């Protein structure tokens, strides 16, 4: 039997979600956050942010720094020296770690942000990967964003690559692999409402 003291000292529930583009993390995450009575925290960078051209990076210095750390394939940052790149990566990781721990302190649903790595040892924390067939994810993203299928397909190809590269370069892990997740769910095979219900049930079990 669980003592009252133990219950009082339980950390609030946290769910981290990594999604492949268009897998429904926003809808699932918000529904889960509401059910668990915790805040919802969206991706640090939106699809529109990642799609923006080099000129727009002048208004988003953090994303510009991320692209610089990733190398010349993104944002036109060719020729960055090794030392400056290492310093940029260290600063980005330290800043993200602080943010993730601050958000998790009061519980929440966190999308992206390498939460499965940063909070790997935190109790009462569930790590989820949302995936699905590419054509299903592109169609869902187009509907949700009010954009055409061609634009959604371009976003999918770029965004799935960029987000994976961010994790590989900054944290040395591939978020597309299942080993760090408690749940891997295909939203091609389950409606988002059912996915949210499964995540809520699992999060409550982990928190208990």
Structural class: alpha/beta
The proportion of residues in beta strands is 5-15%
**CATH fold topology:** Rossmann fold
Count of alpha/pi helices:
9
Record the strand order, biggest sheet: 2-3-1-4-5
- Name the CATH superfamily classification: P-loop containing nucleotide triphosphate hydrolases
**H/E order of the elements?**
HEHEHHHEHEHHEH
Shape: globular
Number of strands: 5
**Total individual domains:** 1
Biggest sheet record: 5 strands, parallel
CATH architecture: 3-Layer(aba) Sandwich
Index terms:
Rossmann fold, single chain, five-stranded parallel beta sheet, alpha/beta, 208 residues
Characterise this structure.
This protein is α/β, with parallel strands linked by helices and 208 residues long. It has a single domain, classed as Rossmann fold. It has nine helices and five strands; from the N terminus they run αβαβαααβαβααβα. It has a five-stranded parallel beta sheet, sandwiched between helices. The chain is globular, with a radius of gyration of 18 Å. The termini are close together. About 4% of the residues have low confidence.
């Amino acid at each position: 039997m669980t003592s009252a003291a133990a219950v009082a000292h339980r950390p609030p529930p946290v769910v981290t979600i990594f999604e492949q583009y268009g897998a429904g993390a926003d809808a699932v995450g918000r529904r889960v956050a509401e059910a668990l009575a915790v805040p919802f925290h969206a991706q640090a960078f939106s699809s529109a942010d990642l799609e923006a051209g080099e000129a727009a990076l002048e208004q988003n210095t953090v994303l510009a720094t991320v692209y610089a750390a990733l190398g010349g394939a993104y944002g036109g940052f060719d020729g960055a020296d090794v030392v400056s790149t290492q310093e940029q990566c260290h600063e980005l990781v330290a800043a993200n770690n602080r943010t993730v721990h601050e958000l998790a302190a009061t519980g929440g649903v966190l999308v992206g942000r390498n939460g499965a790595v940063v909070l790997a040892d935190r109790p009462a924390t569930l790590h989820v990967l949302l995936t699905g067939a590419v054509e299903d994810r592109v169609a869902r993203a187009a509907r949700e964003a009010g954009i055409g299928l061609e634009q959604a397909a371009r976003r999918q190809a770029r965004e799935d690559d960029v987000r994976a590269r961010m994790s590989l370069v900054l944290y040395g892990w591939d978020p597309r692999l299942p080993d760090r997740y408690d749940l891997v769910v295909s939203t091609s095979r389950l409606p988002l409402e059912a996915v949210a219900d499964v995540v809520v049930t699992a999060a409550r079990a982990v928190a208990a």
